[in-house]
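[User] Once you have settled down, look closely at the record that follows, and write a paragraph about the fold.
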Amino acid sequence: MMKMRCKFWLGILMGIFLVGSVLAVSDRAVFQGQYFEGTEFQEGTFDFDFIVYDDETAGTSCFSDSKTLTTGFWGQWRTELVGISTSCNDVTKDYFMEIIIDNSTQSPRRRLTHFNYLRKNINETTTGDLTISNILNFIFGGFIQEFVDRFVFSKNLDVHGDLDVDGNVNITGETTINGEVNIVGETKIQGQLVCLENGTNCDDGDGGGSVGNYVSFISTIDGNLSISDRYLPLGTDSLIASSEVESSWIIDRNLTITGILWNSLSNTRTKNSVITLMKSTSDKTSFIETDLSKNIQGQVNGIDNSFEASFVQGDLAVIKYESGGVGGTIHDLSVTLIGIYD
């Protein structure tokens, strides 16, 4: 029964919104809905009383009218009411309509704030969450659009004019906006934050909403990796080395390495073949392992962005290949480390 009453009021609300576009020069409001009681739509002729109050449950009535209406097979009815905006024209108040059918009150009263004449030309401001439990229809440029559950758009959104949004809006369909768009808050496309032109409002991957500048270190070695531990210098066609002293480099700014990409001509390794980023905060003889360590055994190429290895300006770094022993070879390996800096 409650579900059908929601449909009943949806019809009323739709009528209210249609007033603003088709009856802008007269004090006439078109209302329509469905009459449902028990488990059935009510078909027949009934007495309707329409009363507008300035409170949701008590208050003083500012308008009333009575109609004898004949409903259709689905209980549908339609009527025009004249004089609501003339009688209920205090823009500091909210107005609620009560409908009585054959002396039976159709509770609850419904707020009429979106009826243009009741609220004149003042802006409508809602503080806090606005929860809509059923489909609510608005007219945008002559087209009825649907709001469903906390401003989630289940269909396309067409806005003719400027659109100001303060808060979160989730649009799952195509959006066309002819005018200026001002969004105060996060802006996302397919769940991903949209970076602003000044580099702010972007996520660095940890959900914190901050952004850093992209950084990468590339090593393309000239030679093969197999049974011995080796170190990979930076640069292209660089020679592998047997010690970190020969291959290490110095970090020139504070940064965090978050991922590794690798590609090789072939990878027939059957034993562990671990690529590890090493770090030293003092000299070339004091390297320790960082969080970034990836076993690429038998994998010709791949990507892993699950790391967080932090460096400060002046730290040393080197890429180590650690072999698990005899068992296949990696031919012409290229490694790229990626991350961000402040």
Remarks:
- The domain at 213-341 is CATH 2.60.120.40 (Jelly Rolls).
- Helices lie at 2-22, 84-87, 116-119, 244-247.
- The chain has three domains: 1-122, 130-185, 213-341.
- The radius of gyration is 34 Å.
